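Handout, section B. The chain below has 233 residues.
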Amino acid sequence: MKVIKTNSYQETSQKAAEIVAEQIKSKPDSVLGLATGSSPIGMYDELVKMDLDFSKITSVNLDEYYGLAPENDQSYRYFMNEHLFDRVNIRKECTFVPDGLTADPEKHCAEYDQKIIDLGGIDLQVLGMGLNGHIGFNEPGESFPVGTHLVTLEESTIEANSRFFASKEEVPTQALSMGLKQIMNSRKIVLIVHGKAKEATLEKALNGPVTPHLPASILQLHPDVTVVCSFNE
């Protein structure tokens, strides 16, 4: 595991973007696993500035709020369109985000996992980490979630995400999330962590016991993880 500590969110974003850019240049038809939330926004801005060729790229997103339509401005499909897809030459039909309106979550989740398998797996997975150590929406629990699944969000996650909504009551209480099997099967992983509040959690995740009570700790078992972090802001 490689850990890159930077002095600012801007520098963290630049370093993470350089890693993704290198993947795109070295394998133009890469399958990228993409994340949402505040952590990767700066990275997406940097990638847009690099004027990369996304025409052969396929993407699969980690998660989506359950109950939100793609057109909802708080959905993760909307987020990805706004921050990356509408700003580069990626083919929209090659961008995959879980369907927040699916009538059969179990079936849809199984199909999402199969889609990733059919694509040949994820070449590079981008991750953020929540205050409680979740990656994707894989929340702390008694076991590591394996496949894509419908998850009930922890109160701390709802509280953290409420800043994006008009009120806490508007935050969905469930989400569809890629499980840890597909994440861990990714050939490379870049984890973006920013903010003093996450420093202690990251320390435990990287150096403490591997436990489902701290989902990010499972990354210790992956052969190619780069952590890009900053705690000065």
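Note. The chain has one domain: 2-187+199-230. Compare this with the example in section A.
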